[in-house]
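Following up on my earlier thread - several people asked me to post the actual chain instead of describing it. Fair enough. Here it is, all 255 residues.
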Amino acid sequence: MEDNRFRIKSDLSGMLSSLAREGGALEPGDDVTVSGLKARPELNGVTGTIVCWYPDRGRYAVKVSDAEEVALKPNNVGQTAETFDEAYLARVREATDIAKALDPDALEGQREIYPNELRELKTEALRKAYTALHDFTEVDTNRGAGAGVNVTEAARYKKAHDDERFSGLKIEICEALDGVEFEPDVRVQARMNWGAALCRAGRIEDGKERYEQALEMLKSPEASDVERWRGAIERGIRDCDKQISGELPRTGAFI
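Reply from S.P.:
Thanks for posting it. Predicted structure:
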């Protein structure tokens, strides 16, 4: 069991650590065809192998021969915005499924088993999956030229709200984490996002309930940016009331 515990922990840590905000969709060992290079046109058409992803540079290390390794942008090895999006979602989906499959309750009463540690690991993994899904819309502007900032990328923001797989997965993770406390600065936002995802899926009454819970959380002395969050949450509640009354459609609306 000792080996299995740390193998599970290592597998989850490795998978979740690959979810960088501007991480590569391709995996080490993947074969790629180089294209679109202007500085090294002789490499265009060459088949190379992905070595690793440099998140701080936004480039892949690609082995193009036994003696040469080059750093290439995603579009120079065939990675498009669509393939990145699909790979990112698949990784969060896989991490979520692994975390949910951990069953601490099945270990209760067994000798030399660690249900509490497994329960903590499961919670930590689900919280990281939630954060990774939330961070999908954030792009790190730092590419080795000083301090960067995280900005919301419009196309990703739209996809995260229009693609039911994203909102559905967010609902699934939030439901699995129900009752687990987030950090104070994340707690209100997480509950509000859960409400927005439920409304997006047409579960308006459930979404309104989560909005109201988020509004109640603002009363905590640990809550920050209270006025900003209150305005957003109250708009969400008003939209829910309009959806329930039929003034707005029951699907497709979000804050």
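The longest strand covers residues 47-54. That should answer part of your original question.
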